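It is worth pausing here to work through a concrete case rather than discussing structure prediction in the abstract. The textbook approach is simple: state the sequence, then state the predicted structure, then interpret. We follow exactly that order.
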Amino acid sequence: MSESTPPTAGASRADLVADAALALLAERGMRGLTHRAVDEAAGLPQGSTSNLARTRQALLELAVRRLADREARVLGLDEMPDPRHGLDSLVDALALATHRALTRNRELTLARYELALEATRRPELRAHFDAAGARFREQLGALVTAMGSADPARHVLSLVAWADGLMFSCVAGTFHAQVPSLHEVRADLREVLDGMLGG
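Step two, the predicted structure:
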């Protein structure tokens, strides 16, 4: 799986705005996200963000779309293993993706939690947020199905809940100062998948 690319590498103006919005969400929270603050953070002329996303809802949707693109690279969705390579290959891929989210991409993970919480209060944002995560859930479902899952939908929910729980605890929760090593993440994930798939 490839390393994640810098957020602004080859970015369009819309991507620059969205990247700045994500950085502000991680640094200042939802209250710190304003059109003016995004312009300043992105190094763009005043009014640039408003030209791209006139309302707060439009700005949040832009951030969600960019979040999905960047997380797809972090997770290596285009490089997930062939199920024929066995359980070890899947464990390695998912452990690496999870560890990336906990370390080099910690800011992106924090921004995701800010957006997830905001989506609980904005039904129109919820639809965009859920749709953005659908690709990963569908791909994970196909992988566990190919590896013999007796209940793919339940297993996908359990895997996502395990990863989200670990990431939240280590990025924003009580274990924020105790980020597990890649080896530890892999060991935990192997135990989870062994229980699901009878490894």
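Step three, interpretation. The chain is about 70% helix and 0% strand. The two ends are 23 Å apart (CA to CA).
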